Amino acid sequence: MLNQSVLFIALRYIKGSKKQRFATFVATLATLGIAIGVCALVVVSSIMQGLQERLKENILSDCPHVVVKAKASDIPFLLNIKHVNALVPFVEGQAMIQYGSNISMVTLQANQTDSLYVSHRYASTIGLTTHRSSQTNKDDNILDLQYCIKMPHVDKAGYSYGSQFNLTKGRYELALNYTNFMSFNMDGTNSDNKVRLISTQNARYTPFGLTPIQRNFKVVDVIESIDKSNAPIVVGEYDDVRKFFRISHEDTYFRLFLCDPFAVDEVAEILATKFEFTDWRSRYGDFFKAVGLEKVSMTIMLCLIVLVAAFNILSSLTMVVSSRVSEIAILKTLGMNNISLLNVFLLVGMSASFIGSLIGLLLGVPLAFNAQAILNVLGISIMQGELPVIIDFDNILAIVVMCWLVALLCTLYPAYYASKSDPTKHLASS
Questions:
Q1: Would you report the helix, strand and coil content of the chain in percent, each value rounded to 5?
Q2: Residues 386 and 28: beta-carbon distance below 8 Å
Q3: Would you say the C-alpha torsion 346, 349, 353, 359 has a positive or negative sign?
Q4: 134: pLDDT strictly greater than 70
Q5: What confidence tens digit (pLDDT) does each residue in 351-391 have?
């Protein structure tokens, strides 16, 4: 514990004197530098976090988090995996889509929307009271471990299961991606928009050679999520898509919904021991790596502001110590030990970090929340809609702790030098 004499002396040194105006000026610059650095880190990290979450929501809500090839008897095991909220029977394949003279590559997907299996853990979270269903499986063990409900668009807890469409079985209806819809120049008022899907998956040999699968689909809806990949997602009815790809009922795939798509690494480690699977990283992994790298790069660049300010702490504290060597000698003569002197100058050096980080937080949090309003006043438009901002208190805590640690490293040597100074030498010279 710090005694009163240590605090009193540290406060006197922090206040400074007329003879040490330059050291006080340098310490003030260090405080302002840390405040600016913390403010910039809070604002930028909050906006980058918000952008990352919006991209995750817009892109990964329709993209399957994990697709597993498994049997119905494996459903309990899959639902008991940590981070897995639910699963649904699923089918997916690559196809070419043709509309007039336009041809494009697409990923055709379908969920069995009336068979969403929800784990007990997640069912209790969303307050699900639906009775267990026996419409799909008769295995008592399976029915005892999850609920089977109709797939909602958004559940009671606000979790989104992606775009859902009312597609009629047997009519080969299709929800087309907005990217394809615009590139094909389709007429939105035309209720008879038809496209042809062509796939070589499970193609058969005929007397004319290998014949791809072809079928006309009627476009009845549009997927409005972001999809800039080479093969945008289009959605069909589950049984129709299975027939189109000629997938037998022995081959069953399940789409896993995770509480956080970024937790896929932990899920993949468990699945790798038993199942064949793919996850969203094969489709968007490089994109989100680039987003994460951009976030890290911005953070490192802004941390340099704090680092420069910390060097100013080193300079100001060194000047304070060198100008007060005789006072340090007197304090030692009066009985102050090395630990107390070390604490005095640690407090003097760290004061700039404490005050600067506090000012930075008081400025940064309101600026982050009002970033969109400030941009509107300046006439700057970064993106459509409201700028997403997420204040992550773990990030703020990490920023403050980082500032304190850097300041502590720059304070240690001058404070240690002051505590180890020889009082007889400095008293004699004075």
A1: 50, 20, 30
A2: no
A3: positive
A4: no
A5: 888 999 999 999 999 998 888 888 888 877 776 777 888 88
